[in-house]
């Protein structure tokens, strides 16, 4: 089991399908996470929750248990819809990994050693170079691409432990990366560990980001489907409606339960427990 920094349990959060998700805005999230990096003990693992992850979580109890041990940040319009339906408001910020991680590295002014694991070899090396240009005061080390066997994992993690990283970025795709981190990464490997999905591909320029206007109106998912229709069409055009159906059903159950609690009749007065009454004392004349 990962040892999560004790500060992480105090993060402001709200539930999405019963999973606590951090509901800080950008500024507070930067301050909070950068403080976790400087904690002298423990480890914090950050994962991101979007509509696709929710579908995976509901189908895979082990994956859900893994996320419950992590500090989870909201990613995308799907979890905003879920929060609106079940909590009455959207999240203060869309803390998706593609934007949050590079911005966090800019926010952290103290030089850190940062390890990168995952993706294809060309994406890994390209991401390392892009990160070095983006935040040159940090030291970025490409540890290993994402193509290795379970038998090779111990030697890779021994190398990570020798490197004494402050931050470890892992890009293997959901749910593999979260489960792999939960199983193998320990406090001696890095104080802060972040599962970053396709971030290395974006940083290396292998997969283009959507135009700024498309990102502003929260439809980058559609742009990505047009770029990779064979891989992503099913996730969004099938998984999206499945996610919405689950969210509406979950919200209906929650609201029905609250309504029952509100209209539940109170027990008659004679059936209610009575408080003990102290005997009256005579007042001396």
Automatic annotation (TrEMBL):
The keyword Magnesium does not apply. Pfam families: Glyco_tran_WecG. The keyword Cytoplasm does not apply. Keywords: Glycosyltransferase, Transferase. Residues 263-285 are annotated as: Disordered. CDD domains: Glyco_transf_WecG_TagA (cd06533). This is WecB/TagA/CpsF family glycosyltransferase. It comes from Rhizobium alvei.
